[in-house]
Write a structure and sequence with these properties.
The complex is a heterodimer of chains A (about 290) and B (about 170).
Chain A lengths: L1 H9 L1 H17 L16 H14 L4 H32 L3 H7 L4 E11 L7 E4 L12 E4 L2 E9 L4 E5 L7 E5 L5 E5 L7 E7 L10 E4 L11 E8 L8 E7 L8 E7 L2 H12 L1 H9 L1
Chain B lengths: L1 H21 L15 H5 L6 H19 L4 H20 L4 H4 L5 H4 L1 H23 L6 H26 L8
Helix pairs in contact in B: 1-3, 3-4, 4-7, 7-8
Classes of the chains: A alpha+beta (about 290), B mainly alpha (about 170).
Chain lengths: ~290, ~170
C-alpha cells in the first residue's frame, strides 16, 4: 500500500499529463462539430474583441476591390429589376389582376448585415467569425451570403459575435442545382483549394458544360432558391462513381470576404417542426391511436 | 523570480496575439509560421512538470480558441512539453550548472540552442500537420507543409530569441 502511494506521488505530473491529453483528445475527436461550446470557439468574448481590433485596422485595406464588386453587383441587379419590371408590365396588360396576387406574397427571408472579423482559407476546416450575435437576431443554422453568393451557415452564436461554418469546410453539404438544366446535386469541399468545390451526386443523364451557373436549390430552409454558388469548371473524375461530379469555381472570394448578410427564414421554425414530425414514428403512432 | 514571471506573462500575451495573425498565413500554400511554441522552449529546465504541462495545455488551448481547432494545438503542445527536458539533455551535459537554466542562445550557445529548438519544432510541426490532416489523403502536401513551416518557424524563433534575450548573460 505504502509502495503504491509512493508510486502515485512520484508520478503525479504524468497523471496531470494524461488528464490534459484526454481532455484535448475529447475536444479534438468529438464527432459532431455543431455541438460546440461557444467559449471554446472564436465567437467568445475574448477572441471576438481581439479579432474586432485586428479587423478595425485591416478593414481599410482592399476597400477598392470591395467597392468595385458592389458596383458590378449593383448594376447587375438594376438591370434585372428593369427587365423584371418590363415583364411584369407585359403580364399586367395580359392579366389585369396580377398586382393583387403579387401584393399578397410577402418575402420569406429577412436579413442581418454583419462584418467579417476573422476568416481563414488555409486550414483543412475553415470558419468565419462575424461581429453580430444573438442580441442582433442571429441564431444557429442561419444561411449566410455575401454579395457574390453563398458564404456558409451560422454555427455557434455568442452575444455579440457568431461563428460561421464556411462553405470551404468539409462539414458542409449544400444542396445545389445547375441553373441551366435544373439537375440537383450536393456541393462539398474536399479540402485542397479554397477557390474550388465539388458538386457531387449529379444524375448522369444531364449535360454539364464549363461556364454553367450553380445555384442553391431551395430545398433546405437555409437559403432561398437561386442564390449564386459558383460556375462549373469541368468534370471531376476522381469523385464520380454512379453519379457525376463536377468541379465548381466558387463565386465568393473567401480570401477577401468583408461584409456578409445572415438570412433568416420566417418559415424555418415551422418547416423544421414539420420535418421532425414526419421522421418521428412515435408521433405517427399517437395519431393512429386516436 | 517575480520579474521573470511578469516577463513571461507579457511574452505569453504578445506571442499569442501575434500567433493569431500568423495562423491565418500560409505562404505558397505550404508554410505557416508557428512562434508561440517559443514559450515552451523558454521555460526553465528545473520547472516542475505539473506547471509545464499546465502552461503547455492552456497556451495550446488559447491558440485553438482563436483558430477554431479545438484541442489540436493543446495536444501537440502537451506532447512537445513532455519530451522537452529529454531533448535538452540530449544536447547539453547534465550537471549542476545546467540544472536551473533557461534555454536560450545566450545561455547554452547558438548551435546547441538551435538543435534543441529545431528538434522540438520539427516534432511540433509534424504533430500539428498530421493531426490536422487526419481525414485527408494528401500525404505529400502534408509533408511539404511540415518541412516548410518548420524552416520558416525556426528562423523566426531565432529572431525572437535574440530580441527577447538581449541582456541576459550566461547564468551560473
Amino acid at each position: 500500500m505504502n509502495n503504491l502511494l509512493q508510486f502515485l506521488v512520484k508520478h503525479v505530473p504524468w497523471f496531470v499529463f494524461i488528464i490534459y491529453v484526454v481532455i484535448s483528445c475529447i475536444l479534438l475527436f468529438r464527432s459532431n462539430p455543431y455541438q460546440q461550446s461557444v467559449y471554446l470557439s472564436s465567437a467568445n468574448g475574448i477572441s471576438s474583441t481581439v479579432y474586432e481590433g485586428y479587423s478595425g485596422i485591416s478593414s481599410y485595406f482592399g476597400l477598392k476591390s470591395v467597392n468595385e464588386d458592389l458596383q458590378a453587383r449593383n448594376t447587375e441587379l438594376e438591370l434585372e429589376v428593369a427587365q423584371l419590371k418590363k415583364q411584369l408590365n407585359n403580364y399586367k396588360l395580359q392579366i389585369p389582376d396580377t398586382t393583387g396576387i403579387l401584393a399578397k406574397s410577402k418575402p420569406d427571408f429577412t436579413y442581418v448585415v454583419a462584418n467579417v472579423i476573422s476568416n481563414s482559407v488555409a486550414q483543412p476546416a475553415n470558419f468565419i467569425t462575424i461581429d453580430r450575435g444573438s442580441e442582433d437576431g442571429i441564431v444557429p443554422e442561419m444561411g449566410v451570403v455575401g454579395h457574390n453568393g453563398v458564404v456558409g451557415i451560422v454555427n455557434v452564436v455568442g452575444k455579440h459575435s457568431a461563428r460561421i461554418i464556411s462553405l470551404i469546410n468539409p462539414y458542409i453539404r449544400l444542396s445545389c442545382k445547375v441553373k441551366k438544366n435544373g439537375k440537383f446535386g450536393t456541393l462539398k469541399w474536399i479540402g485542397e483549394d479554397y477557390r474550388y468545390a465539388t458538386l457531387t451526386e449529379l444524375p448522369r443523364d444531364g449535360k454539364y458544360t464549363k461556364g454553367d451557373s450553380v445555384v442553391t436549390s431551395g430545398y433546405s430552409a437555409l437559403f432561398p432558391e437561386g442564390i449564386m454558388v459558383g460556375i462549373v469548371e469541368g468534370e471531376d473524375k476522381t469523385q464520380s462513381s454512379n453519379f457525376m461530379a463536377v468541379k465548381v469555381r466558387l463565386s465568393t472570394d473567401f480570401s477577401q470576404l468583408k461584409n456578409v448578410s445572415a438570412l433568416n427564414n420566417k418559415m424555418r421554425v415551422e418547416l423544421k417542426a414539420l420535418e421532425s414530425k414526419d421522421n418521428d414514428p412515435s408521433g405517427a403512432k399517437k395519431e393512429e391511436k386516436k | 523570480m517575480a520579474k521573470n514571471t511578469i516577463q513571461f506573462i507579457g511574452l505569453f500575451v504578445v506571442l499569442v496575439l501575434v500567433q493569431v495573425i500568423f495562423s491565418k498565413i500560409m505562404l505558397f500554400n505550404v508554410a505557416t509560421p508557428i512562434i508561440f511554441i517559443y514559450l515552451l522552449f523558454r521555460l526553465p529546465i528545473s520547472m516542475s512538470l505539473n506547471a509545464v504541462f499546465t502552461i503547455a495545455f492552456f497556451s495550446g488551448l488559447a491558440i485553438d480558441m482563436f483558430n477554431n481547432t479545438q484541442g489540436m494545438n493543446a495536444l501537440a503542445c502537451l506532447l512537445v512539453s513532455a519530451i522537452r527536458t529529454k531533448v535538452f539533455y540530449a544536447f547539453v551535459t547534465r550537471d549542476d550548472e545546467t540544472s536551473n537554466i533557461i534555454p536560450s542562445c545566450k545561455s547554452v550557445g547558438t548551435g546547441t540552442y538551435m538543435k534543441y529548438a529545431g528538434t522540438l519544432m520539427l516534432i511540433y510541426c509534424f504533430l500539428i500537420f498530421f493531426i490536422q490532416a487526419f481525414t485527408f489523403h494528401n500525404v505529400l502536401l502534408t509533408i511539404a507543409r511540415v518541412i516548410c513551416s518548420f524552416v520558416l518557424s525556426l528562423i523566426l524563433i531565432y529572431g525572437i530569441d535574440s530580441l527577447v534575450d538581449t541582456r541576459r548573460e550566461k547564468r551560473s
